[in-house]
Amino acid sequence: MLGRLWEWWRSKKPLVDAAFMSPLLLVSILAAWDPTDKLGVPTYTVLSLALCLPLIWRRTYPRAVFTVVALVSFAQWLEGITPVAGNFAVLIGIYTLAADQPRVWGFAAATVGELGALMAALRYPPGAGEKKQSFIMLSILVWSVWILGTYISTRRAYTRSVEERAERLERERDTEVQMAMAAERARIARELHDVVAHNVSVIVVQADGASYAIETDTARAKEALETISATGRQALAEMRRLLGVLREGDDTGPYAPQPGVGQLDELVEQVRASGLPLDYEVTGEPREMSDGRQLTIFRIVQEGLTNTLKHAGPKATARVRLHYGDEAVEVRISDDGRGAAAADDGRGHGLAGMRERAAVYGGTVEAGPRPGGGFEVVARIPAREEVRA
Fold first, then answer.
1. Calpha distance 263→261 (Å, rounded)
2. CB-hemisphere CA count at 13 Å for 217?
3. 216-247: pLDDT as tens digits
4. Which residue of 84, 163, 165, 357 is most buried, as measured by CB atoms within 10 A?
5. 305 pLDDT exceeds 90?
6. pLDDT tens, 52-103?
7. What is the pLDDT of residue 221?
8. Quick one: how far is CA 132 from the chain centroid?
9. pLDDT tens digits, residue range 182-195?
């Protein structure tokens, strides 16, 4: 509620400027109540109103407001009226032009203010020494206000450029993430193609065998038909997932056999050979899984260890835990490296790829710094449909 009220208040420029102008107007009118002055209260009141009221629109029409205030001050000088508190409106006008307008307008306003300082110093103080001192003080005041306004203008321009750059980088990062996700979908589609092609090949071979054995060996023919049924269901499930992944414009070359859970030992040895101390453990009762699920687990472990090698630091150690549960297969990759302190250039898409792979099978991936230091990736792949004990 307070945030909305503040935003509404800031959007009403004349209302805000009127609130900031009110104290100056009040001080100027109160100072006009001088019984010894021959001009009287009405003259000073009108002069104060003429100087202060235009400030209500100082940010809406800054040039026009400064022009009006400068002309009123010039008329005051011509009539020989003693300066009042409302004459600070000239300095406010200089600051506004320097802060909100192009540099040339701010400098022009400061030049006019310098001329006004010279005119005031020549007319109002009685002594020559006082004239010089008054001119110096007024000049310092005018150019100090101009310097302040110029600094605020530069600061605002810098802040706007930083905000625009941050927004542009955020848009570019979103685009890169989308491109990475599209590339990952294409990669998953190629790999699932291999899995489905393998299953169909098994079906063809078993069907040929059943056709030859159906008259001479009924038991073997029945076994072959059961294998065809199981493999067909598995291939159908894989195809359903395949239809959800687009492969437009994919021409990355011929397909090759993809790794699975059985190749994790080789992956672990490769990582150890690269110099990273690694502890690998498998718990629970291993299950027979579809090639697609095995490939997903392998890629998640591979990406997690790759991130460890890149970001954990030279003295880090890693652990990989593969747990076969009743409902899901859990993969946990952790290290004791830099964790949240690791440098990130914002261009990596490994975590996005992990989540894409796990989502194909209805799984989840959670990743982040560990409370005690280091980084951890936890993936859970449901053990349903093709997974059987």
1. 5
2. 10
3. 777 877 787 777 777 777 777 666 665 555 54
4. 357
5. no
6. 888 888 888 899 999 999 999 998 888 888 788 888 889 999 999 999 889 8
7. 78
8. 56
9. 777 777 766 666 66
- What's the CA angle centered on 331, arms 330 and 335, to 5 degrees? 140
Q: Could you tell me if 366 and 345 are in contact, meaning their C-beta atoms sit under 8 angstroms apart?
A: no
DSSP β-ladder status, 328-335 and 364-369: unpaired
CB distance 62 to 93 below 8 Å: yes
Which residues neighbour 359 within 8 Å (Cβ) at sequence distance 6 or greater? none
Q: Exposure of 63 by Cβ count < 10 A (0-12 exposed, 13-18 middle, 19+ buried)? A: middle
Structure tokens at 104: 């040339």
Classify 127 in phi/psi space as left (phi over 0), alpha (psi -120 to 50) or beta.
beta
Tokens (6 digits) for 135: 């001119």
Q: Which residues neighbour 371 within 8 Å (Cβ) at sequence distance 6 or greater?
A: none
Domains of the chain: 2-124 (no CATH), 173-243 (1.20.5), 261-382 (3.30.565.10)
Please choose, from the candidates 288, 205, 290, the residue with its C-alpha nearest in 3D space to the C-alpha of residue 239.
Answer: 290
Q: List alpha helices for the chain, DSSP H.
A: 2-11, 13-31, 40-52, 62-79, 88-100, 103-123, 128-213, 218-243, 264-273, 291-311, 350-360
Token pair in block for residue 73: 């001050």
